[in-house]
Amino acid sequence: MNDEVISTNALAWLVCSGVSILANAWGILSVSAKQKKWKPLEFLICTLAGTHILNMGIPITMYCVIQLRRQHSNYEWNEGLCKVFVSTFYTLTLVTCFSVTSLSYHRMWMVRWPVNYR
């Protein structure tokens, strides 16, 4: 890929990252605005939104900033940045998978044993 396409993609990812952070923060605020006692479903939804915020806020934004910075200087990825990017991206993606799995099990239990959720 040429550098122009990469910088255009990085800018698009940066915009999507900002929109995702705002939308997930809005979701957390709307779910938690009037909660006096947290139910498991609200907690799991906020956990999922929080992991999305972290996933967009740390590794994706870091990737975009480094790619855009490369356009104006000879700044390159080094081994330390690569390790930080890969470890945070995969860790937060794994946490997102666990959050979705927990939501799925919670929904299954709500359908299977509705007496416990009255």
Characterise this structure.
The chain has 118 residues and is mainly alpha-helical. The chain has three helices and no strands. The radius of gyration is 19 Å and the shape is elongated. The chain starts with a helix and ends in a 6-residue tail after the last helix.
Low-confidence stretches: none
Structural category: mainly alpha
- Computed over alpha carbons, the radius of gyration is 19 Å
- Distinct helical segment count: 3
How many angstroms does the end-to-end distance come to? 56 Å
Number of beta strands: 0
In helices, the fraction of residues equals: over 70%
User: Which sequence of SSEs, written as H and E, runs from N to C?
Assistant: HHH
Residue-averaged pLDDT: 87
Largest sheet: none
| Residue fraction in strands | under 5%
Total of domains: 1
**Morphology call:** elongated
Write a brief caption for the model:
The protein is mostly helical and 118 residues long. It has one domain (3-117). The chain has helices at 3-32, 40-72, 79-112.
Describe the secondary-structure layout:
Blueprint: H1 3-32, H2 40-72, H3 79-112
Helix pairs in contact: 1-2, 2-3
Transmembrane segments: 12-31, 43-68, 88-105
Keywords: Membrane, Transmembrane, Transmembrane helix
Protein name: G-protein coupled receptors family 1 profile domain-containing protein
List keywords for this structure.
118 residues, mainly alpha
